[in-house]
Amino acid sequence: MRLSALSRTLVLCLFTLTALLLMSQSTWGQFTIPQQQSQVVLPSNVTRYGNIEATDVVFDGKNLFTIASATVRDRNNANSLVPVEIRAELIEANLQRIVAPYTQNLLDSREPKVIISVSTLNNETVILGRTELQQQNITVLTVTELDSSYNGIPIPALAEEWRQIIQENLQQAISQRTPQALLRQISQALWILIIVLFMSLILFGLNQFFRRRKIDIQKQITALKNARKIAENPSPHLHGLHRQRVEFINYIKSHFSYEQRHKIVSLFSYILLWMQLAIWLAGVAYILSIFPQTRAISTKILRLPIVWLTMWFLTGLGSKLGDFLIDRLQQAWENYNWFDIGEITRKSLRISTNVETLRGVKTAVVYMIRISYIFSTLGVPVSSIFALGGLLALAISLGSQNVIKDIINGLLILWEDQFGIGDIIQIGEYTGMVESMSLRITQLRNPEGCLITIPNSSIIKVSNLTRLWSRVNFEILVDCQTDPTQALNVLKKVTQEFYADSQWRQSLLELPEVLGIDGAGHEGLLLRVWLKTQPGQQWLVSREFRRRVVEALEQAGIPLGRPHQVFDRSDPHYSLPE
C-alpha cells in the first residue's frame, strides 16, 4: 500500500494542526500580524542583549574580535546612533586601507612590517595602524565603554589585546599575498584537487557497483510483479477469491524480501553519493580558504548551503535508517507473536498494511523537520510557521470535509483492524478482495476482475469474510416423503468421510456439524450443516461438499425436494392436466 500524494499532504496538515493545539498561548503571541508601521528586521550577524548590540569584526574570512554598540531600535531612523554592523564595516574598511597598497598587485613582493599602536585621543582610547613604509597612521577604531562592558575587560587591557590580534592578522595578510606565497597556495590547492578526484573515483566505482546490484534486484521485483512467481505455490484445488488471496499473500512475502535487499543496497548507494558530494564541497571550501582573496567566500557563501545539505543528508539518512528499522520491525513481528492477532495469514496481512502506513508517517515527519530547519536558518520563527500551518489545515478541513472524513475513517479502520490488504470483504453491495488501501480510499477486486474504489467515509458496515475463520452454512431440500432419520444419517456419513479426506482435511477446522431439519413444507425437508473452514476457503469447501451430498442422496434413493400440488377431483373449478 502506498499513500497517495494528497493523503501525505493532508497527513502533514493534520500533524501541523496537532502541534498547533499542543502549543502554549505564547505561540500566538509570536505570530505577528502586519502593522501599518514597518519594523526593520535585525541583521543576521547582529546579536541584541537588551540595550547592547554586538557583532564580529571579520578580516580575510576570520572573526578577529567582537565589538558592541548601543541598541538601535529603528535602523531606518537611527538619528545620531551608529548601528553596530555599520561600525564593524568601517573598522574592516580601515584594516583594508592599511594593507591595500601591498595586496592589490600580485607581483608585488614587498613584505613591510605592520605597526599597530594604542593611543589616547580626546580622552578616548584608539587603536592606530600603519606599515613601516607608511608615514601617516590610520585610525582603526575607538575602544568604547560598551566594548569593555560587553567583553568584561578594562579598556586598556582590551585595547592591547585587540592591538595584538590586528597586528598579527595584518602581517599575515601581507605575507600571504606575495608571489612566493601564491605559488605555495596554488601547489597546495592542486594537491587537494588531486586527492578529491582520487577519492571521487573510488566512491564512483563503489556507487556503480551498488547501482548495478540495485538494478538486478529491481529486475527481480519487476519479474515478480509481472509473473507472480510465488514462493509457496497454493494447492491445486484452490479457486476463485481464495486462490487470489493466497497468491496475493505469498506475493507480499516474496516482494518484501526483495524490497528489504533493495533498501539495504539503496542505503549504501545513498551514503556513497552523499560522501561524494561532501568530499567535493569540503574540497572546494578548503581550496577557497587557502587563498586570502577567496577566504571570505569560503566562510560566507558556502556556510549556509553546507548546513542545508548536511541537514538534508542527515534527514535522508534518518529516513533510510527508518525504512531499515521498519523492515526489522516487520521481520520481528513475523517471527515473534508480539500481538495476538490470530492465525499467521491474518498477521501477515495486517503487518503489510501497518508497515506501509508507518512509512507514510515517517516521510511526513522527515519533511516537517527539513522544512522547519531551513526556515529557522533563514531567521523565520518556526512557531509562526506552525501557527500558519494550523490555520491552513483548519481552512483545508473546512473546505474538504469529505476528504477529512475519509482520512479519519481510514485511520479508524487501520487501528481497529477491521480489514487489511488481502482480506475478502463485503461493503454494501460490493464483494471482493482488498487490493489496495490508503487513508482515503479502499480498492476491491471482485470475482469478475473489476476494480472497485470506495471512499473510506462511505464505509459504514463491512463484512469480513476471511477474518480468522470462515463458515459454510449448507442447506439442502429433500423430498417431503423422505424418512428424516435416513436423510440425516446420509449427511452424517458424508461429513465424516469428507472430514477424513486428507486432501480436504487442511481446509476444515473441525468436524462438520449436522444441525438437523430446519424446515418442512410442500417443497420438502430443509436440512442444515455447518462447516467451519480456513479463512477464504468456504466457497471451495461448499462446492465439493454439495457435490458429495448430491451423489450420496442419489445413491441412497432420496430425491431432492420439489414443490407438490394436490388436486381435488370433486372441485369443478380444477381439472387434472392432460
UniProtKB/TrEMBL annotation:
It is found in: Cell membrane. It holds the Pfam family MS_channel_1st. It is a multi-pass membrane protein. GO terms for molecular function: mechanosensitive monoatomic ion channel activity. Residues 402-467 form the Mechanosensitive ion channel MscS domain. Keywords: Cell membrane, Membrane, Transmembrane, Transmembrane helix. Residues 472-559 form the Mechanosensitive ion channel MscS C-terminal domain. The chain crosses the membrane at residues 189-210, 267-289, 301-319, 371-396. This is Small-conductance mechanosensitive channel. The gene is mscS.
